[in-house]
Structure formats: C-alpha cells, structure tokens
Amino acid sequence: MDILFDTANLDDIERLTPIYPVTGVTTNPSILKAEGKIDFYAHFRQIRSIIGPNRTLHVQVLSKETQGMVDEAHRLLDKIDANVYPKIPLTEAGLHAMRILKSEGVKVTATAIYSKTQGFLAIASGVDYLAPYYNRMQSIDINTRETIEALAGFIKRFDAPSKIMAASFKNIAQVSHALQSGADAVTLSPQLLQQALSAPDIITAVDRFLDDWEEIHGTTELPF
Ligand code: E4P
Fold this sequence. Notes:
It is found in: Cytoplasm. By secondary structure, the chain is α/β, with parallel strands linked by helices.
C-alpha cells in the first residue's frame, strides 16, 4: 500500500516524511498556488532532495495540447530528475500524450479521473498510476467505491501494470473506503493524516492511561 503526501509545502514534507510511512509526493497547479510564486524546478529538486531517490514524485503538466504535454513532461524529466512521474489529465489530448510518453518508456500518472471510462482508457494505455478524484466524484453523485472496485477488477483481470492512486480526499473515511475498494495508493494532505491522529478519542485514551499510572505511582514515567 502506498500513501503519498498531496502537497508542495517543503516544511511539511521535511517534518512529516520521517513520521508517516509515505512513499511519495503528488502536486497539482492548485496545490502549488498555496506556495506562492515559487521557482518551479528548484522547488521540485528540493522536494526530491528531502524525500530521497526511492519515493515517487508526481508533477502535473499545464499544457492542454498533446505536443505541449509531451514537451512539458520531457522538461520535467530534464530539469527535476529522470524518475519524475509526469501527471497528465486524462482528456483526449492527454490520452494521446500518455500513449506517446509510454511508448518512450516514461513513467506516467493519469490524473483528473472522474469516470470508469477514463480509468479503462488509462489502464489500456499502460499508465503507471491513475488518480480517481474521490471527493470530487462523490460531490457529483458518482459511486466512488464501485468505480474503484471496477477499475481494480480490470487491472487484475487483464494483469495490467497500472496502480490506482486515489486522490482528492476531504475526510479520512474516504481514504479508508478507497483503500478497501481496491486502491493501491492514496494521496492526501498531511493535515488530513494529522487530523486522523489527533482525534479527541485517541488523545483522551492516552491521557487516561497516564492519569491512572500517575494516581498510583506519582509519576508519568516508567521506572528506571
Ligand atoms: C491529486 O494529485 C489531485 O490533483 C488532488 O488530490 C485533487 O484534490 P482536490 O480535489 O482537493 O483539488
């Protein structure tokens, strides 16, 4: 199972990557907006230096045209590093770009997936990851669990190399449901993971253990 940080915030990535079992970082232009006017390639080289060579880094192209997407993907590989996964929105132009990039041996993440049809096309094109947008799909009354199950079923049935990296989460229940439905990976904001571990019940349980110990032993530490 892969858990990725959906953020471009250097401080969060640096502080939280040693704590959480993350296997990569994803971003999109809206996520980058939160970081202000960054030096684009330098920013991603910094992310790479924080996460190291073994975690995956997924960076989205901007162009809406096939050739523009292919050119931008090449630029990402040249200017960040050769292991970047260009993230390509699955439009018709994007599908064409993905097929060209896959024929060149480039690793590709298909993004902006809202439907089974987009998913099937991504899988049939041999993409490495496909990113169904969980919350956005739910918001327009698409059955996200059924969609992910169907895509996972196709991957299994055709022994395809693609992995489902569910994205666009607004609460932790959506994350669990995506994984239970067959997603191989989930990408979410570090804040959502942190929220999950700071739930009042967890804090209360830990505090009560300490209170009980202190009541008898007068300390909150184990004996030396
Ligand atoms: C993933 O990489 C997606 O771009 C992202 O999760 C979309 O999230 P949003 O729906 O919160 O914008």
